[in-house]
Design brief:
With about 130 residues, the chain is an alpha/beta fold. About 35% of the residues lie in helices and about 30% in strands. It has three helices and six strands.
Amino acid sequence: MEKEITLFIEATASEPLISFSEGILIISGRSIPTDASRSFNQLIETFYRYSRKPKSKTEIHIELDYINSASNRSLLNLLIVAEHLFKEQLDVQVKWYYQDKEDIMLEQGQIFSELLSMPINFIQKAKTNPNKF
């Protein structure tokens, strides 16, 4: 029996939380590292290994508050690997979470959507009431 491909990287002030297990990838937080390729290399390598024998369903949840241009390139490289799975008729769901219609992250997700041939589902996060106890 093959070992499950997993990855967990704790979030920092400049790098997002990355959690990957059972075909579900979560990227959450801020992605503004000084060397994005180094930061994302482990994730891309892990996801590429996974793509050789993927689960029947792959989910990618992207819930970033902010992403710099270097991280954009690395994230696009990751999504291109996912797109290859999609083109092989596998069930790949990308869920892109954003705050509101003015959110720059919504705009960034729409740019990725135009560059890729797989759909991206845009999900508006529920607004939280800071005065609620």
